[in-house]
């Protein structure tokens, strides 16, 4: 029998390769727990499923789906489901591992999981999208559940898709299981504040990091790559705090204005087919020039692997806030550290979404729902505490915030592993 690892061929900068190198860097700080470290490099369980559906034209199409449970030592698996034509088992493995680290870094009682389907949802009708979602949910239904693994939205999935997933799982178990997914519509057990939670978490960790660096947010210049759910919400909160959003890049291109882009106009323009560059309140520049824009804070909030070694050399930012998962390759990480650029790593910076997902899950179990202020106050407190704890660890060992986050998180994960012991 082959191991799960034999199905992937990671490279230094591929998602799973990046994750492995991040784990290697933390092992020296794990003390006696290092004996368990191999656990972190092996997903517990990976399910590959065939997702056949009848298309609107009567043909039969097959898509490949995945659900990986990387680690369940601290609680049920938690992690999104991504619909994208480039999804691979390797990518889902890395994303599930980052969820393990993320939930431990903010001390939520979860392990890490992730799912995906290799499909371009933009090429499906609504009916086909629903069929793909329901069949996939039914196929992975043998390993998900409110107490075992709780999916959520990720790239190209949303509240409607979560509603279909919840309904399909509920039909199969013969009840209404709202706690099986998070990110649901509000009237189906969703939580207030969930949609903006990740962007809000980016802002909260960024605000704390800026305070510790002595960087005043009033007048600070911010550049944002990716202007979707995460990037645009973070940008709005920074603008409310007095910062200037001087550059925005999305899939349509890059727009700049050194006096600050007017978000009241840019946000709706970016939601149209023309994207961010259809907004007239700035100048369109070459995409590569985005990485050299004069700014204090850089927020990558689009895709993996965006901050390469070359771009890390160019950036003028003092502070990088990783809204996206895995936006910085390991060689770039070293360059940023050498240049004195502080990076708030993804596993803490974008943990606001999973934190409010946790609130949603708790509210579903108690059937008692909190108001938005309560959600935001609790989110702020959890994120601030997590960041401050990690910052103190980084100061103590003279290590980067990323390695410190892994040190805090991996200690929690491996302590749970050790205390549970090996079965049988
Ligand atoms: P989204 O689909 O809402 O937005 C993605 C943005 O990236 C869009 O503005 C798109 O135009 C832009 N983009 C796509 N390709 C690009 C390219 N080649 N160059 C520049 N911009 C490009 O997605 P989102 O929910 O905002 O997620 C963004 C990132 O944050 C992803 O890495 C995701 O995994 C991560 N993340 C999201 C959440 C969440 O709750 N939504 C939580 C944690 C992490």
UniProtKB/TrEMBL annotation:
<dbReference type="InterPro" id="IPR036291">
    <property type="entry name" value="NAD(P)-bd_dom_sf"/>
</dbReference>
<keyword id="KW-0560">Oxidoreductase</keyword>
<comment type="similarity">
    <text>Belongs to the Glu/Leu/Phe/Val dehydrogenases family.</text>
</comment>
<dbReference type="InterPro" id="IPR006096">
    <property type="entry name" value="Glu/Leu/Phe/Val/Trp_DH_C"/>
</dbReference>
<dbReference type="InterPro" id="IPR033922">
    <property type="entry name" value="NAD_bind_Glu_DH"/>
</dbReference>
<protein>
    <recommendedName>
        <fullName>Glutamate dehydrogenase</fullName>
    </recommendedName>
</protein>
<dbReference type="Pfam" id="PF00208">
    <property type="entry name" value="ELFV_dehydrog"/>
</dbReference>
<feature type="domain" description="Glutamate/phenylalanine/leucine/valine/L-tryptophan dehydrogenase C-terminal">
    <location>
        <begin position="191"/>
        <end position="421"/>
    </location>
</feature>
<dbReference type="InterPro" id="IPR033524">
    <property type="entry name" value="Glu/Leu/Phe/Val_DH_AS"/>
</dbReference>
<dbReference type="InterPro" id="IPR046346">
    <property type="entry name" value="Aminoacid_DH-like_N_sf"/>
</dbReference>
<dbReference type="Pfam" id="PF02812">
    <property type="entry name" value="ELFV_dehydrog_N"/>
</dbReference>
<dbReference type="InterPro" id="IPR006097">
    <property type="entry name" value="Glu/Leu/Phe/Val/Trp_DH_dimer"/>
</dbReference>
<dbReference type="InterPro" id="IPR014362">
    <property type="entry name" value="Glu_DH"/>
</dbReference>
<dbReference type="GO" id="GO:0016491">
    <property type="term" value="F:oxidoreductase activity"/>
</dbReference>
<dbReference type="InterPro" id="IPR006095">
    <property type="entry name" value="Glu/Leu/Phe/Val/Trp_DH"/>
</dbReference>
């Amino acid at each position: 029998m082959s191991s799960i690892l034999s199905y992937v061929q990671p490279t230094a900068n591929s998602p799973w390769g990046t994750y492995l190198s991040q784990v290697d860097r933390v092992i020296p700080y794990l003390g006696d727990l290092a004996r368990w470290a191999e656990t972190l490099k092996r997903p517990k369980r990976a399910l590959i499923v065939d997702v056949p559906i009848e298309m609107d034209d009567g043909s039969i199409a097959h898509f490949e789906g995945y659900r990986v449970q990387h680690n369940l030592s601290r609680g049920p698996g938690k992690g999104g489901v991504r619909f994208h034509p480039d999804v691979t088992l390797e990518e889902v493995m890395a994303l599930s591992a980052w969820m393990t680290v993320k939930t431990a870094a903010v001390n939520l009682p979860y392990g890490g999981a992730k799912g995906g389907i290799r499909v371009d949802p933009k090429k499906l009708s609504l009916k086909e999208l629903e069929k793909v979602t329901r069949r996939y949910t039914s196929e992975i239904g043998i390993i998900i559940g409110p107490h075992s693994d709780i999916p959520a939205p990720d790239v190209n999935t949303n509240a409607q898709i979560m509603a279909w997933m919840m309904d399909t799982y509920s039909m199969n178990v013969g009840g209404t299981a709202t706690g099986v997914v998070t990110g649901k519509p509000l009237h189906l057990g969703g939580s207030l504040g969930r949609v903006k939670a990740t962007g809000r978490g980016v802002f909260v960790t960024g605000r704390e990091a800026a305070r510790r660096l002595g960087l005043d947010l009033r007048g600070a210049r911010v550049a944002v790559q990716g202007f979707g759910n995460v990037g645009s919400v973070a940008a709005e909160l920074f603008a409310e705090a007095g910062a200037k959003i001087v550059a925005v890049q999305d899939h349509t291109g890059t727009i700049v204005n050194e006096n600050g882009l007017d978000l009241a106009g840019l946000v709706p323009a970016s939601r149209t087919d023309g994207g961010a560059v259809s907004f007239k309140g700035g100048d369109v520049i070459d995409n590569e020039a985005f990485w050299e824009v004069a700014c204090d804070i850089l927020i990558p909030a689009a895709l993996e692997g965006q901050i390469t070694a070359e771009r890390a050399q160019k950036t003028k930012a003092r502070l990088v806030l990783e809204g996206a998962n895995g936006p910085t390759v390991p060689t770039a990480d070293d360059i940023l550290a050498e240049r004195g650029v502080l990076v708030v790593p993804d596993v803490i910076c974008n943990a606001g979404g999973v934190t409010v997902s946790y609130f949603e899950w708790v509210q579903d179990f108690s059937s008692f729902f909190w108001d938005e202020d309560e959600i935001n106050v609790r989110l702020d407190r959890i994120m601030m505490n997590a960041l401050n704890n990690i910052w103190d660890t980084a100061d103590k060992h003279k290590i980067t915030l990323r390695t410190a986050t892994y040190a805090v998180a991996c200690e929690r994960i491996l302590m749970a592993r050790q205390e549970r012991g090996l079965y049988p």
